[in-house]
Amino acid sequence: MQQMPATGCMFCQQGAKMVLFITGVCRRTCWYCPLSRVRKGQDRIYANEKEISSPEEAVRIAQRMSALGTGITGGEPLDRMDRVIEFARVLKQAFGEGHHIHLYTALAPGEEELQMLLGLIDEIRMHPPAECWNTIRETEYFRTVRRAREMGFSVGFEIPALPEVGQLEAVLPDLDFLTINELEWGETNANEMRRRGLHPEDSVHNAVSGSREWASGISRHAKVRFCSSQFKDSVQLRKRLIRVARNTARMFDEVTDDGTIVYGIIEGVNEVPSVLRDYGEDMYETRDGVFETAWWIIIEEKARIGGRKSVIERYPDRGIIVEVTPVP
Ligand code: SF4
To answer: Which residue's CA is the nearest one to ligand 1's atom 8?
Structure first.
C-alpha cells in the first residue's frame, strides 16, 4: 500500500528541513531516550549540528541549506514555550507562511497552549509514553489530537519502534500520520538496552535488533511511516549536507556525493604562493595564516609550493573534519 508521509517527513526526506533542537531539558525519563550526553538535560539550542543562541542565527543556518521547513525538537520543547514561539515567529517572518514547521512534544498541549502555537506551528508530533499506548483513546493525548485537528493543525504521533507499537493501531483513524522511528542504540541508553537483552543490529549501524519487526505489522498502514536509522543517515543527512555544501562551497571546493567538501591547505609559508596567484583570486583564500585552495592544485603543483601541504575533507560550512591527507 502506498504510504502517505506527514508533510514534515516529505521535506525531511529531501534534506530540506532544518533540525532546531530547542532545549535538552525534559521532565520525562524514557529508558530509550536517544539524546547524547552533550545535549541531554542541557538547556542548549542547536540548529542542525551548530550550537546557537538566537533566532537570527537559526535563520542564517536555514538560509545556508535553503531550508523549506524546520523541525522543532528536544528535550521537551514545550518546557520552553516562549522560546518555541519566538523562534517559530522569526522563521515564519524570514521565510514566509509556507516555511513548514513541525513540533515534537512528549506532552499533550491543552487549548491555551494550542492557541499560542496557532499560525506558527503547522504540524504537531506527539510522543505519548509507551505505558499508555494500550489505552490511548482514554488519554489526554487523544483529546489533544481531536482538539488540535479541529483547530487546523496537522496532528500525528512520533514514537520509537518498541514491542508494544502495534497497540497504536486503535488510534490511527484519528491521526493524520504516525511516524515510527527505528529504536536506536546510544551512549546514554546502552546500559538500559543491555539490561533488557537488546543489542545493536550490527557493528556499523546503531539500529536495535528486532525493532523493525516490532513495527512491521502496523507499518503496512497507509498513515504510517517507518523511519529507519540507516535512512536517516544515508538519505536525510546526506541530502541536507549536499544542500549546505552547494550553498556554501567556494569556487575551489569540491562537493562529494556524500555532501562533504574537499580542498587543499598550505601551512608554514608567509605569503600567498605565487602559483596560487596564477590561478586567480577566486581559487584561494587565506584563513588564520593558512592558504586554502583546490585539492588538485596542491597535487598538480606540489613541486612549486613550499610549506606543509594537505588535502582536507570535512562537513560543509566549516563543519567537522573527516580526513586530513598529508601531501608529501
Ligand atoms: S520525552 Fe523525548 S527527550 Fe524526553 S526523555 Fe523521552 S525520548 Fe528523551
So the answer is: 33
